[in-house]
Each structure stands twice: as structure tokens, then as C-alpha cells.
User: Which sequence fits this backbone?
């Protein structure tokens, strides 16, 4: 025979299990955690939605437009047998990661209608590359500079 | 006469040159390290002493008394990511900086293009010439007909508008026709005065010339961007 005290504890334990079972199963990703739920009510949390990428301009690009479009942004590039990602920093430097080769740095600068680029020497590119300037344009989705195509990347 | 040339390993060689080039047998790394040390100790006062003995038109030390402070040679802090050895031309400030190690840059005043003649971009130093010959472009002769007498080239020398040294700027392996060069008119430094080239005081460009090897990067910042 269970004592009266033990009966009460058993009832409480069973009730807890039943409640826990109710709260099991898939939860929405952004539901406040149980810890938060047990705390004081909080402001409703806005779901984190990936911000849409800024649309690219269309047509020929002036130096100002090139600079605004590329500065502090990362792009996927492909063309001329190469592909990877590149970030154009606002100070005129770049950092890239070329598929199958590795990371490197370089320079970029906008000139009217042209994107100028040069790569610094790395292990896989011991001499770097000379400064080259290519006509640049955009169709609103893809930027083309010489034989290279650039698309925005969220990286 | 000799010129500075970068080897495959990044060293700088003295090689014979028919175009009046000067040079020294030092590595790029030691050059930058030496420059940094000189800059940090304040020893960089007289430009390119190694050049002076060979210079066909030696110049006295320049008197900066009439030059605004912003355009006098100085050493400034540099917090950017550009590599040591890079030349940066701040078009709107009319200042030219050479990045050196240790978060510093050697800075000089310069003149840039007049309205409608300025340019921006990225280039490499493709040639270095001492007391360069100057040939006015056709467009200049059309604008200023008295320049026609130099249509076949004005020999280098103290009267030559390119001044004591010229660094030829290349893009895509081709001469852009833009240069960093000296001047016969030091009062133009700090102004929008040229036809697109970057002008420096002769003594300043001699110093810059002695510090940068062929292949050095030149970044000309766009104005108002």
C-alpha cells in the first residue's frame, strides 16, 4: 500500500509527464524556448528572414556606380576557367577564394566604365597578376567584366 | 646607366639600360624594410643619394617654405590593408602616399589633372626614366599651338615639363600615357593643374623614384566617389 504522501507525488509526476508529452513534437523554428516561456512574457520575436540582396544596376556603369555596387560586397565569380568568391572592400583591396587553389588578396579600383583589378602574389600565383582594366556592365542579375561574370553572394 | 627590375623571386636587379634608368641591387623586401626604418627614424631627408652622383642635372635641396604644409613630404599613420610598396594617389587631397611597413606611409603633395583631365584606376609602374624626354600629345598641340616645336620630343632636362623623373603607368601591359613625374612649376603642387598626369616636386619624385621598383602598384582614387 502506498502512503497518502506517496500517492500525491505519483499523481504530480504523472501529470508532469502528460504535460511534457503535450509539448513534444515539432516546434516552429523561432518559438521562444521553454526557458523563455517560463520566464516573464516578452515582446513577440520577429522571424529572422534573410534580407533580399540589393538589386544590381543595369547597363553601363560609371565609376561611382561601380564603386557603390561592389564596395564591401561579396560575389561569386566564374569565367576564363576560374571560379570562386571575391569580396571587394571599400579601401580598394580584395580578398578572394578560388576553387581548387585557395585564398588570395588583391586590389580593385573603378574607372569610368571599367573595373581594374590586380592580384597579389600567392603560393599558387607567385607573380600575382598585373593591373588590368576591363569594361564592366550589368544586366541587373549578373555583372560582366571582361570574361568574368559576377553574381552577388550572401557570404 | 642602370634600371631597377624585379626578378622572378621578387629581387631587384641592376641592369644596363639605354633609357637612362637608375637602380640599386637590393631586394624589394629590404627596400621596403629600409624605407620603413628610414621613415621611422626620420632619416629620410635627402632624396636618393645613390642617384645624385649619376644625375646629369643634380638639384639642390628643395626649399619647402612656400609649399603648404599638407603638400610637404611627411610620414603618416596608415591603417588600411594595402600592401607595403603600393602607391596611392588621393586625387581629392592631391597627395601621393607610398605604403611602408609598420602601419606607416611616406606622403608627398602632388598636382592632378585639371577638370575634365582627371582619371582614376589601377596601374603598375611599367618604366622608370630619369630626366625623361617629353612629347606633347596631338591634342595638346591643338590646344596650345606653341608646343608644336616639340612634336618630335623635347629632350630631358631642367626645362622639360616632365621634370627630373618619370614613372610610366601601365594597365593591361600597355602604357596608359599617364605618368607620375616631376615639374618645372613647383607652385602647381596641390592644384588641379595637369593634363591627367601626377606631378610632384622634382626632389620628391627623385625620392619616390628611388624607392619603388618596376611592377609597383599604383592606385589612383576616383574623386567624389
Assistant:
Amino acid at each position: 500500500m502506498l502512503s497518502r504522501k506517496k500517492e500525491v507525488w505519483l499523481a504530480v509526476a504523472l501529470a508532469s509527464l502528460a504535460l511534457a508529452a503535450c509539448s513534444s513534437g515539432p516546434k516552429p523554428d523561432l518559438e521562444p524556448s521553454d526557458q523563455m516561456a517560463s520566464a516573464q512574457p516578452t515582446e513577440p520575436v520577429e522571424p529572422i528572414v534573410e534580407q533580399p540582396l540589393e538589386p544590381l544596376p543595369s547597363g553601363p556603369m560609371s565609376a561611382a556606380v561601380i564603386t557603390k555596387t561592389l564596395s564591401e560586397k561579396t560575389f561569386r565569380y566564374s569565367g576564363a576557367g576560374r571560379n570562386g568568391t571575391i569580396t571587394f572592400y571599400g579601401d580598394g583591396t580584395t580578398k578572394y577564394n578560388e576553387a581548387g587553389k585557395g585564398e588570395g588578396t588583391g586590389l580593385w579600383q573603378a574607372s569610368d566604365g571599367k573595373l581594374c583589378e590586380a592580384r597579389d602574389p600567392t603560393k599558387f600565383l607567385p607573380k600575382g597578376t598585373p593591373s588590368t582594366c576591363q569594361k564592366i556592365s550589368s544586366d541587373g542579375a549578373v555583372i560582366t567584366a571582361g570574361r568574368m561574370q559576377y553574381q552577388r553572394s550572401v557570404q | 646607366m642602370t634600371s631597377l627590375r624585379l626578378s622572378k623571386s621578387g629581387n631587384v636587379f641592376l641592369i644596363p639600360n639605354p633609357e637612362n634608368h637608375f637602380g640599386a641591387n637590393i631586394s624589394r623586401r629590404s627596400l621596403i624594410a629600409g624605407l620603413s626604418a628610414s621613415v621611422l627614424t626620420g632619416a629620410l631627408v635627402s632624396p636618393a643619394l645613390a642617384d645624385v652622383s649619376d644625375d646629369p642635372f643634380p638639384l639642390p635641396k628643395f626649399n619647402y617654405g612656400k609649399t603648404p604644409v599638407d603638400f610637404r613630404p611627411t610620414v603618416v599613420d596608415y591603417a588600411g590593408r594595402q600592401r607595403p610598396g603600393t602607391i596611392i594617389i588621393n586625387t581629392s587631397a592631391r597627395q601621393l602616399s607610398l605604403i611602408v611597413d609598420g602601419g606607416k606611409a611616406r606622403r608627398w603633395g602632388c598636382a592632378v589633372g585639371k577638370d575634365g583631365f582627371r582619371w582614376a584606376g589601377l596601374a603598375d609602374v611599367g618604366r622608370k626614366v630619369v630626366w625623361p624626354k617629353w612629347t606633347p600629345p596631338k591634342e595638346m598641340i591643338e590646344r596650345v599651338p606653341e608646343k608644336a616645336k616639340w612634336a618630335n620630343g623635347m629632350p630631358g632636362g631642367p626645362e622639360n615639363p616632365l621634370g627630373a623623373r618619370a614613372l610610366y603607368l601601365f594597365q593591361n601591359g600597355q602604357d596608359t600615357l599617364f605618368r607620375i613625374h616631376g615639374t618645372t612649376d613647383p607652385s602647381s603642387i596641390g592644384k588641379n593643374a595637369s593634363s591627367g598626369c601626377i606631378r610632384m616636386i622634382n626632389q620628391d619624385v627623385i625620392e619616390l623614384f628611388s624607392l619603388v621598383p618596376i611592377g609597383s602598384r599604383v592606385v589612383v582614387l576616383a574623386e567624389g566617389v
